[in-house]
Amino acid sequence: MAEEMIVKELDEVVVRFSGDSGDGMQLAGNMFSNISATEGNDISTFPDYPADIRAPQGSLTGVSGFQVHIGAGKVYTPGDKCDVLVAMNPAALKTQYKFCKPQAVIIIDSDSFTKRDLEKAKFTLENPFSELGIKNEVVSAAITTMCKESLKDSGLDNKSILRTKNMFALGLVCWLFHRDVKVGEKILREKFAKKPEIAEANVKVLYDGYHFGENTHASVSMSYTVPSKAQKEPGKYMDINGNKATAYGLMAAAEKAGLQLYLGSYPITPATDILHELAKHKSLGVKTVQCEDEIAGCASAVGASFAGALAVTTTSGPGICLKSEAMNLAVITELPLVIVDVQRGGPSTGLPTKSEQTDLLQVLFGRNGESPMPVVAASSPTDCFDAAYLACKIALEHMTPVVLLTDAYIANGSAAWRLPDLNTYPSICPPYVKLEMADSWTPFQRDPQTGVRYWATPGTPGFMHRIGGLEKSNETGAISTEPENHFLMTKLRAEKVEKIADSLPPLTVEGDPDADLLIVGFGGTYGHLHSAMDQLNAMGKKAALAHFRVINPLPKNTAEVLRKYKTIVVAEQNMGQLAGYLRMKVEGIHLHQFNQVKGQPFVVKELVEAFSQLF
């Protein structure tokens, strides 16, 4: 063993924690992210949950992973493959080794690699490393034994002691990358403030893992540092995931508009955390109702909107199917409503914990009748705040339901987020009726410039009215089945949505201004597409990226941008939904497609290889 260990400085590193669902890998990964963010690194994370509620211990289907990419500069993705893999059992090693770089360090709990453990993971040889052909550096630590020895006098039962193994692994990883373990201690004491004995046990084991690496050099040839080189904008930062950022964006919009926020929802993976987060903020006037089903969640939100609240309903793809009739009620009544769709793998129950972009055509067209609805797509965990704010602004100012698309990848993934100054955000001004309108007002009287109907909330003197799901007369607001009136109302609702484009920023293009290839995408693929563009430009190829935030209506310069490029590739995690929509909306363009539906994020290397063939 060398007395002085070599310390290598890296610009970026990817660490993947993996083990049974009960091994606490999500907590260990989240804490390592927070510790690294505190050090000033940029971060991007990817929690990879199993679809099983609780698979048998040690089974291949029950492995839970958490990947974090930390960088000295800007980090766009959680990384394709990892530099360090923590595998707490043979099943984790077998399923997660494919994510390792050739030179990756693998850390294992040797106590969990017994013959019985190997059999559960369907290994046939006693040496799993030779069976998998692994030649990487392996740090084999008796983590279970050391945790038991460390806490033998703690008074905790054996089950509670074994739950600390993740902190030993985290401490070892913190040593390997020269992270400040005291930050981890602070996080643990805050998390377990009401259970001090649990906090003390986890803190002790965290330090034990750190000192194990420090005292033994953990049998590795070198340790690493990832200094912070990026000049961050001054302010307060926090590690935030997309669901929490979405919840914060909704609350910010309600405050800016001077309205109460109402959420009518039904729990569904991976959107439920938005309901959980908003339920914590009753002090801010937030009202949350967990309804009996998806339809009731959306219908109650429509009622809250009629009553004058900023109304929201949250769900995933299967819930959008069920909510569609109530969503259409908001279309025909022209009431503001935000529908958050955290996309997951489908069809049917599909892949509940995995991520796709396969709901696009459903939210654009998946309702009966001509039912135009604006669609906004968030591009990253932190962008969920701004996208939620924008969706609320469009809904309230244009009296329309709006769909906000996120996905499981950005909803559960996290990044360092600078707390915003709400004073810098644009105002939100709903088109309320004015008192002088009382004598001549009808429910579908519209602003002549925007086509938006005026909003009369219940209790406003002189503005008593009824609205509902049957078609109404444009002139009187009474029920009407007149053919010409229905055609007129259909056109007015469509024109109102199209006019929203007048208030939206133009489609921007990043990258080489003289690009030979334009990459097009939307939503949570932004980081991977941006990284692919950067790599292509570094290779001497000329690439640019146009990423859509608002998909309906399209930005007014969409056709101008797309017709400028000879070669365009639309990359999406579906079978070509955005590409088909763009062909329908913009005539005379030829689009190449890159499509994957794997339930996993794009791999940047695969994108670069595919895009390179188009030059």
TrEMBL record:
Superkingdom to which the source organism belongs: Bacteria
Gene Ontology biological process terms in this record: response to oxidative stress
Oxidoreductase listed as a keyword: yes
Pyruvate flavodoxin/ferredoxin oxidoreductase pyrimidine binding domain segment(s): 264-430
Recorded GO MF terms: oxidoreductase activity, acting on the aldehyde or oxo group of donors
Boundaries of every Pyruvate/ketoisovalerate oxidoreductase catalytic domain copy: 22-210
UniProt-listed Gene3D superfamilies: 3.40.50.920, 3.40.50.970, Pyruvate-ferredoxin oxidoreductase, PFOR, domain III
InterPro entries found in the cross-reference section: 2-oxoacid/accept_OxRdtase_asu, PFOR_II, Pyruvate:ferred/Flavod_OxRd, Pyrv/ketoisovalerate_OxRed_cat, Pyrv_Fd/Flavodoxin_OxRdtase_N, Pyrv_flavodox_OxRed_cen, THDP-binding, Transketo_C/PFOR_II
Keyword rRNA-binding carried by entry: no
Domain Pyruvate:ferredoxin oxidoreductase core stretches: 515-589
Keywords on record: Oxidoreductase
Full protein name: 2-oxoacid:acceptor oxidoreductase subunit alpha
Native source organism of the sequence: Phocaeicola plebeius
Taxonomic lineage from the root: Bacteria, Pseudomonadati, Bacteroidota, Bacteroidia, Bacteroidales
